[in-house]
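Sequence, please.
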């Protein structure tokens, strides 16, 4: 059960990038740097079904990792572990399951009920997950895993920077500037959010 949880966590963080890059070539005109990954799941996308299915699987994989996270961190600090789990729940539901069930549109000019639900869920999910590396850093220091603690702290700082750029990229005043690369900032934000997950899951798989 514990090892399976770590495997699910690793599948989630690697799969989120891998699925997008595998499906993108089938969506003509899609830009990894200018468009967010969820555009692959819009109603006009030829890979809509597959990408949205992945988002649901992403959420499920994150939930499946909970036994492993509890096993590793609960005895260090039940309160901080609970905070981490709640933040992951917000991301798993908002940016994962809900985003998979309610598609974003190809452009933000097209607003539907589904795209609004997607936007709110994904936004709350991203904001929540941004702070997970910070709490993982503290928990790792408690466990005297200094390398992972430092990695998580650095990841938090960089994720926060790229998340701010990700938000700025959507603003009209930054159109036609280097900041408008929304897809790039989203991927870099996710990369730094996910890096501590990758580190602890690989460590957990090896130990179990």
């Amino acid at each position: 059960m514990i090892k399976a949880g770590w495997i699910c966590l690793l599948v989630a963080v690697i799969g989120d990038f891998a699925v997008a890059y595998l499906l993108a070539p089938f969506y003509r005109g899609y830009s990894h740097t200018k468009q967010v990954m969820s555009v692959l799941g819009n109603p006009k996308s030829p890979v809509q079904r597959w990408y949205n299915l992945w988002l649901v699987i992403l959420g499920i994989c994150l939930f499946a990792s909970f036994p492993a996270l509890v096993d590793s961190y609960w005895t260090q600090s039940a309160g901080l572990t609970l905070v981490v789990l709640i933040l992951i729940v917000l991301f798993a539901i908002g940016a994962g399951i809900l985003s998979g069930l309610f598609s974003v549109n190809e452009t933000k000019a097209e607003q539907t009920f589904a795209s609004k639900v997607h936007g709110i869920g994904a936004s709350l999910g991203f904001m929540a997950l941004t702070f997970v590396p910070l709490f993982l850093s503290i928990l790792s220091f408690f466990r005297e895993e200094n390398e992972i603690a430092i990695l998580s702290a650095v990841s938090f700082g960089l994720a926060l920077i790229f998340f701010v750029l990700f938000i700025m990229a959507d603003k009209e005043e930054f159109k036609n500037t280097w900041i408008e690369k929304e897809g790039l900032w989203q991927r870099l934000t996710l990369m730094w959010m996910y890096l501590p997950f990758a580190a602890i899951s690989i460590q957990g798989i090896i130990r179990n």
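Helices lie at 2-23, 48-64, 66-73, 78-101, 113-130, 132-142, 146-168, 182-207.
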